[in-house]
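Work package 3, deliverable 3.1, input record:
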Amino acid sequence: MSSSTESVLTQLRKGVLEYCVLASLRAGPAYGLELAGRLAQHPTLLASEGTLYPLLARLRKQGWVTTSWQESTSGPPRRYYELSPDGTSALETFLATWGPFSHDVTFLLEES
Amino acid sequence: MSTERTTMTHPLIDAYLTDLERALADADPRERAETLTTVREHISESVGDAPDGARVAQTLTDLGPVELIAAEATPATPPGARAGTGTPAPAADRDLWVPRVALTAAVLSVPLVVLNFLLAAPIALACLVVAIVYLRRRSPQRGLLQATLVASGLTLLATFALLVTHVLAAPNEAGAASPHAGQTVSAAAPLG
């Protein structure tokens, strides 16, 4: 990926990626590696898997996700991330805004 | 429930986590601590209890450069508030008035060249230096500073042109003032 493409993506991820993380938790709680795997399926979202962790720390600080420990069948307990009621509400607000916003952007880009 | 994970022992992992801790030095303390812990958990989960070199290398590659991770973290203090309490406001005031004063002086130095270029040149030079310093500091008054550069540059160019003119004109003026100057020198030469 060229450096200019990466710099555009860096700007686009700001303000969007945290909602993608919240959206990926709608299906249910997930531990870090699992969540990184889910997001890594969409190569434009994460610059690297490690960048997910400061974001998760921030989301937890904001109260949009909560964490809990759950036993694992294959090793030590895992830290699971779960969408909180505030996080669900923030995601709904984002979804309501994102639709018209992305529509406007797409329209303008295609018109140009 | 115990949340302790098996301690991973691999030099690449230790080096990576040390680098990450260093890269996160300026991050919000809570985010830094949590990021370090969760990245360690990610590695532990990915490589298992008996990490082999290839698996470790792949995991660290997927995690990405530590600088990239640190760039995602919130800074401990907002940019601009790092100079300490009290100092940002005066610095902001200075950023406002210095470019204006410099521009005024630089503009005034342009007509002053005609009156006294020996006075105008140092003023223009000072304005030029101030403009360059503030532009390098990424002052918000970029337009004023660029105008200062232009005005002071004009003054310095005009000063240079006047100096060149004076130097070129000097022998002619000397010759005109003393038509026998050459003879005087040649007459005086044998005495030296």
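Residues 88-178 of chain B form one domain.
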